[in-house]
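Teaching note: in complex prediction, the entire set of molecules is handled at once rather than each chain in isolation. The prompt given to students was simply: 'Predict the structure of this complex.' The entities are:
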Amino acid sequence: MADNSGFRRVPASAIRAFITDALAAAGLPQDDAAKCAMLMSEADLTGADAHGVFRLPQYVRRLKAGGFNARPNITVATLAPATALVDGDNGMGHLVMSRAAETAIALARETGVAWVGVRRSNHAGPAGLYAEMPAAAGMIGMYTAVANANHMAVWGGADPLLGTNPLAIGVPSGEGAIVLDMATTVVSYGTVKNYALQGKSMPPGWMVNTATGEDVTDAKRSAEGLLLPIGGYKGSGLAVMLGLLAGPLNRAAFGRDVVDFNADDKSETNTGHFIIALDIARFMPLDAYTAEVDRHIGELKESKRLPGVDEIRIPGDRRRECHAERTRNGVPLAPPLIAQLDKLAAELGVAPLAAR
Amino acid sequence: MADNSGFRRVPASAIRAFITDALAAAGLPQDDAAKCAMLMSEADLTGADAHGVFRLPQYVRRLKAGGFNARPNITVATLAPATALVDGDNGMGHLVMSRAAETAIALARETGVAWVGVRRSNHAGPAGLYAEMPAAAGMIGMYTAVANANHMAVWGGADPLLGTNPLAIGVPSGEGAIVLDMATTVVSYGTVKNYALQGKSMPPGWMVNTATGEDVTDAKRSAEGLLLPIGGYKGSGLAVMLGLLAGPLNRAAFGRDVVDFNADDKSETNTGHFIIALDIARFMPLDAYTAEVDRHIGELKESKRLPGVDEIRIPGDRRRECHAERTRNGVPLAPPLIAQLDKLAAELGVAPLAAR
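The expected output is the structure of the full assembly:
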């Protein structure tokens, strides 16, 4: 559970309070700051270490530089009984995507299924957060985003024209939502950044050097390479197709139009997402479905194992266990990250993590 | 384009006529036989070699053994304004899924998006066929099936509890539909069967021997191994999640309940699928969207290439080129397959391929 020595354990409540104060100091209304903090700390609890408080310094930089709109007028246009388009007015992605998920759930209650597209949004944290929202409401959730930087080439290519464009699917079960949250790359760039911050080297197969064709293993030299897709041309094709649905269909960025938000704090990213919610109750009673899901998951977990495998794990296992363990023991934060956050606290004039 | 020496080139029209006669001789009404033949020959034209006429002997065996219902009463229950459940009454999968796709397109015209689940269906050929139907109607198509045999284990497992559960996405472009059709395994079992028929050996990484953990490379010994997922735990997780949506949500088979239709000609498979159709016109004018798709695809194809790569290819390129080339020159059929089909013709008392 990533409890490397030297990491400090910080309660999620302290992280939440710190993020709230920092975002409010950076200009967000108090309620919006608290909502972002709740979702970002949830990312930390679920083990999405590259998508929680780790992102705060970058978000604050963007808010200060005018790259994010601290006081957006988020609007929802219902395009048809079961479809809507959310315009995020360049607000924090967490606020925009929460609104989109709520809209999808409300529409799906009426029509059975809903597809909500999103434009003019921003980085919204881990995809699993939003696939889980319909699942928590007794629905199927499906979510995709055009990632906020292009760290992959199309299969055979050497230009960074594709993002990690994740796919997340949430399904209710008797033990809470089962959430698959997968990048179409072997790893996310956030993971690479986390490795770089911790000075860890990457295994082969994660990134390719586009000039030499060799593996990049030094995470600090990630700028020389590009991420590799899962399944070769398949993962590349999936990133293209999901991107065409989350981006251009919503008049949002894709391909050459993507703004690298790691390199540019000022330009609007016009991030696109989409979320689907499907109301299970239209197909069968929810408890009958979750009982079937539980039976099948149980059969998978109790099935014969390959030699050397101690336990079979299915999507969401790590997420759920991590959430429980970190709720008890706190979120492990790396010393370099804590130093960054202390510096940020001083800049913003808010109490540091340690004082909470 | 798989034009190996020794292959005979057969016009798609001859294949279509042969399949129609064979299925009619096996008990299908003439119109249904023609519809299946059209879709199966389309699979052959698009290069889905393991999903076209290659499957005919097995389909006929199942029809004769009572495993397929030759005269099904396919019903559609509209569960909500944007959702429906199709009960295939154990008919040919092609007929059932065509009906589901038509239903999804019709509902999406009214509500913007539709999700149609399917139960009591059967093997329906390549996933791309059905994702393309909404795309041909100016919509986004998304399709999944629970595969008709379990040739994969859950990640870490050694029991065959998962199928190749494919995901297909269709998007309209200025040059026709762009169709991604990907198994969640590195290859489909149909491809393995085709390799076995042709006596070709498989590259490492396709299948693992569950007892030894080593690669299976002899396609004829595929029974000793299981297919491997793309991206390790990711592909496994995707197969699980897609399976829970296409199977149990429709009260269709998944996991331990899947009937291996390669080993059993008699038992009903209760195959589940789902298809989503999204009406692009609700988001923007269709031609504005296809223009954006064309621009992005062009930018991907013209981007910088890795050393040694002659051409960048995107989803659907091979499919479209293959369709054009095979329409001109005929579908290449391997001699062992032609021998099987000749034997089938004799059994059914219909004219063989060569006489058409």
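Point out the following to students. Chain B has a mean pLDDT of 95. The domain at 8-185+229-285+330-355 of chain B is CATH 3.30.1370.60 (Ribosomal Protein S8; Chain: A, domain 1).
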